[in-house]
Amino acid sequence: MYIAYDENIHPKLKEYFPIAKAIAGQFGNQCEVVIHDTSDYHSSIVAMFGNVTGRELYAPLTNVVIEILNEEGDHAEDRIGYISYYKGLPFRNSTIFIRDDHGKIIGCLCINYCVQDFFALKQITEQLTTSRSVSELKSEAKEEYFAQNVDDFVEYNMQKVLEKQGGDLTKLSKEERINLIRELEEKGIFLVKGTVEKIAERLNMSKYTIYNYIEEVKK
Predict the structure, then answer these.
(1) Closest C-alpha among 30, 5, 25 to residue 15
(2) Of 4, 25, 120, 193, which one's alpha carbon is 20 to 30 angstroms from that of 37?
(3) Rounded distance, CA 85 to CA 172, Å?
(4) Rounded Cα distance, 31 and 23, in Å
(5) Reduced to 3 states, what is the DSSP secondary structure of residue 90?
């Protein structure tokens, strides 16, 4: 089993090592269990047991987890058994938030289980059952991106938002730019250190203008 972890991991997070290792071992080479330290969104993976997403230590939080934290903060509820897609493959995921003694979220344990083989089998057999079809599951699935690093994270989220704009991004009107920043803010992208500078470069704007737009959309 692939195992990697930060030697200086928070003691509270380290308590979850035996659980993470057991889960990864139980479900085999199509499963990984990742422990995140949420004190640093852009370099959050501090332990990995198994590896099916190709990430390494210190990769960022996923877009889905960041959006949950951005919307719910320390009151975020665990997400159990949701379906997502990454690079065309279906995953069944669970995210369990880890809190300190004061109830503040300090990390999360994420189970990522590639269920491509199960989906293929279900497609073959679903006509003989009355259970929910694969197409129904797919229609409800989220796209969860397992970024390798902060540049990868920014590029993916920028691309998803900018696909709607088209044309020359440097020629957007002020209103169009503000709307773009609003959508990026809603996705929680600005919680990751270094994203303002990268977005400013893509839009040919100063980082100070981006900061002003962020403040405007937060009002």
Answers:
(1) 5
(2) 25
(3) 31
(4) 8
(5) strand
Tell me which amino acid residue 123 is.
Answer: Q
Query: Tokens standing for 19?
Result: 């659980």
- For residue 213, give both structure tokens: 């737009």
Task: Tell me if 60 sits within 8 A of 146, measured CB to CB.
Answer: no
CA–CA distance, 91 with 68 (Å, rounded to integer): 18
Provide the pairing of β-strand 89-99 with 79-86: antiparallel
Cα separation, 190 vs 188, in Å, equals 6
Q: Model-level pTM?
A: 0.69
Report pLDDT digits (tens) over 35-54.
999 999 889 999 999 999 99
For the record, the structure tokens of 142 come out as 């989220």
**Which runs of E-coded beta strand occur in 87-135?**
89-99, 105-114
Give dist(CA 173, CA 166) in Å, integer. Answer: 13
